[in-house]
Amino acid sequence: MTLQRQILFWLACLSGFIGFVWLFHTILTPFVAALILAYLMDPLVDRLEKLGLSRTMATAGGLVIFLIVFVLAVLAVAPLLFNQLSAFIAKAPEYVQRLQTLLAENGGWIIERIGGPERLQEIRTQLGASAGEAAKLAGGFVTSLLSGGQVLVSILSLLVLTPVIAFYLVIDWDHMIAKVDGWLPRRQAPTIRQLAREMDQSVADFLRGQALLCFLLGLFYAIALSVAGLHFGFIIGILTGILSFIPYVGSLTGFMLSMGVAVAQFWPDWMMIIVIAVIFGVGQFLEGNVLQPRLLGHALGVHPVWLMFALLAFGSLFGFVGVMLAVPLAAIIGVLVRFALRQYLASPLYSGTGAPVRPASPETDA
């Protein structure tokens, strides 16, 4: 098979995959979630198998453990999260008004900079209107989530179908991998297997490490902010942990929300405002110097900017399914780009000679 035909073949496969996801993305959520769950559970099931359990019993045991942990976490956290979220949405306009008042009373030099009292009043009016509109939108969004029949059906299908699909996927995981391996073109099979191993290592290390990192950060911020007495500290901490999945976005969002609430709540007690800032300073130190090096290292091998672009791009194209696929696809694309770059650097096109610079294979830089 010529190089042109190989390129056309793989481009056709890629186009078929993109078309399939785009066409069925509205119903793929439980299947993608089940695939991710099965991917994360397979190592646990393999270990249970080594203890003497059958594949079916090991899969059932691993799934039961996951469901028990998930249900207990939801029962323990969901009511508090919902109550604090509803209260925060209701209090948001009041906090914005409080911050505006503090700015008017204590920010004389800022007022002069932005154009005097008239300009300040205009800004206050605009911010007040925006805050009110944002609160209405947020309230309407929460109400629609609770009352929207289609959304409820989607959530129920996600909760019910995902474990069932994951169960069958995990049982047949090794068989599916062997079957796909048998379909590989024989001549390129070693190269494809090596690329698949790189993708698997990158995605697995990142997903497991990042999930644990988000959990630990969310737990730290939620407990620390609540102990410090910050209103809605628990929901802000959990939100910070969840958004930490996106580099820099979680910490920045949590810091801005916390400082805004802290100023509105504690002013003029500067000491408490500083305490809230110190909590985020400690969290950032732990994340950058303790948790990330131990849990992630360079697991993904993808620049944070590319990761953020992938989340936005795939999310805009395929909705929630795209967000779920963004990280694995970003890692896969990263591995393929690095492989293509190695091929280029080893080719006569780069060297300008008639012979390759060195043998080009994934093992070269592994």
Descriptive notes:
This protein is 84% helix and 0% strand. It has a domain at 26-183. The chain has helices at 3-24, 29-50, 55-106, 108-114, 116-147, 149-171, 173-183, 189-227, 233-243, 249-266, 270-295, 304-345, 348-351. α3 (55-106) packs across α6 and α8 runs antiparallel to α12 (304-345).
SSE blueprint and pairings:
Blueprint: H1 3-24, H2 29-50, H3 55-106, H4 108-114, H5 116-147, H6 149-171, H7 173-183, H8 189-227, H9 233-243, H10 249-266, H11 270-295, H12 304-345, H13 348-351
Radius of gyration: 25 Å
Separation of termini? 27 Å
Question: Considering DSSP H and I runs of 4 or more, what fraction of the residues is helical?
Answer: over 70%
Unreliable segments (pLDDT under 50, ≥5 consecutive)? 145-149
Mean pLDDT: 77
* Quaternary structure state of the chains depicted: single chain
Tell me about the largest β-sheet: none
* Overall morphology: globular
What class, by secondary structure content? mainly alpha
Number of helices: 13
Number of strands: 0
Q: How big a fraction of the residues is strand?
A: under 5%
Q: How do the SSEs run, as a string of H and E?
A: HHHHHHHHHHHHH
